[in-house]
């Protein structure tokens, strides 16, 4: 039976950071909707072109586009054993679509770790974030600096600051999270799947808690 994990939490809380570590430890593919959109934007695909304006404003990409993209990704052979979902679902419509999709694959959402931190922490993390161009590895200039400024420790590619990490866009992304994504907390709590994790602690401490929740 495949295993599907949904990492829930606001922008900047550390979903991507943790997902990279946990996916490797659990031998699951890391499926990040944000990374998939950025890859499409980089490759100038039709999907990337339709998503870019929404992302730059800090708004959500429409559900139909997002659900179609995730359906394609989860249908690939490397997801046969499940996946670690990061940034999807982000609306109730997406969560319901995911339930139907996983049922088609003979699976369901098994765990929903919900990572939390104060808004001020989110803003501070996003404004100091540096992302790797090749594979989306993330660093922080203060909390998790690369060994050499501007260069990814893991694959040597260039680090950049995301366009949507500008102060005004960050504020909008956090607002959008509270209005459109926060209803998923109740959605998954009602299904007995949600476990809250304090994301305001060091990266390795959060990882240890996640591994406990996921049964090592
Ligand atoms: P997406 O890329 O998913 O962005 P996000 O949800 O805003 O989350 P982030 O990637 O900003 O934060 P994160 O939680 O991954 O934190 P990270 O690990 O990087 O989405 C971007 C956009 O795409 C959306 O705004 C939307 O437009 C669109 N989109 C995506 N999915 C969609 C969907 N399903 N539906 C519709 N639209 C969608 O960490 C942040 C920083 O903190 C880093 O610098 C890191 O080094 C540092 N850090 C991490 N953990 C710690 C720690 N414990 N202590 C100290 N520093 C830490
Ligand atoms: Mg991320």
Question: Would you give an account of this structure?
Answer:
- This protein is of the alpha/beta class.
- Helices cover 47% and strands 16% of the residues.
- It contains 9 helices and 8 strands.
- Strand 5 and strand 6 (138-140) form a beta hairpin.
- Helix 1 crosses helix 9 (203-213), helix 2 crosses helix 3 and helix 4 (63-74) packs parallel to helix 5 (92-104).
- The protein is globular, with a radius of gyration of 16 Å.
- The mean pLDDT is 96.
- BIS(adenosine)-5'-pentaphosphate binds at residues 9, 11-17, 33-34, 37, 54-55, 58-61, 66, 87-88, 90, 94, 125-126, 128-129, 138-140, 143-144, 164, 173, 199, 202-203, 206.
Query: Number of DSSP strands?
Result: 8
Q: What general form does the structure show? A: globular
String of helices and strands: EHEHHHEHEHEEEHHEH
Low-confidence stretches: none
Task: Please state the structural category.
Answer: alpha/beta
Give Rg in angstroms. Answer: 16 Å
Strand content: 15-25%
What is the helix tally?
9
Which helices and strands occur, and which strands form pairs?
Elements: E1 3-7, H1 15-26, E2 30-32, H2 33-42, H3 46-57, H4 63-74, E3 82-86, H5 92-104, E4 109-116, H6 119-127, E5 129-132, E6 138-140, E7 159-160, H7 167-181, H8 183-190, E8 194-198, H9 203-213
This protein binds BIS(adenosine)-5'-pentaphosphate and magnesium ion.
């Amino acid at each position: 039976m495949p295993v599907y994990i949904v990492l829930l939490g606001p922008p900047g809380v550390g979903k991507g950071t943790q997902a990279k570590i946990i996916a490797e430890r659990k031998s699951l593919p890391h499926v990040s909707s944000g990374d998939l959109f950025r890859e499409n934007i980089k490759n100038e695909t039709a999907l990337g072109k339709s998503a870019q304006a929404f992302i730059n404003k800090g708004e959500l990409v429409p559900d139909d586009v997002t659900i179609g993209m995730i359906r394609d990704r989860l249908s690939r052979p490397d997801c046969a054993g499940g996946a670690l979902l990061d940034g999807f679902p982000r609306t109730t419509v997406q969560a319901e679509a995911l339930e139907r999709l996983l049922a088609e694959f003979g699976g369901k959402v098994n765990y929903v770790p919900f990572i939390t931190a104060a808004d001020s922490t989110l803003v501070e993390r996003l404004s100091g974030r540096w992302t790797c161009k090749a594979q989306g590895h993330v660093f922080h200039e203060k909390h998790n600096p690369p060994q050499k400024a501007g260069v990814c420790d893991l694959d040597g590619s260039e680090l950049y600051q995301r366009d949507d990490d500008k102060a005004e866009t960050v504020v909008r992304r956090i607002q959008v999270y509270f209005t459109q994504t926060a209803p998923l907390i109740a959605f998954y709590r009602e299904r007995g799947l949600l476990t809250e994790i304090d994301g305001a602690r060091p990266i390795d401490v959060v990882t240890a808690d996640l591994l406990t929740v996921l049964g090592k």
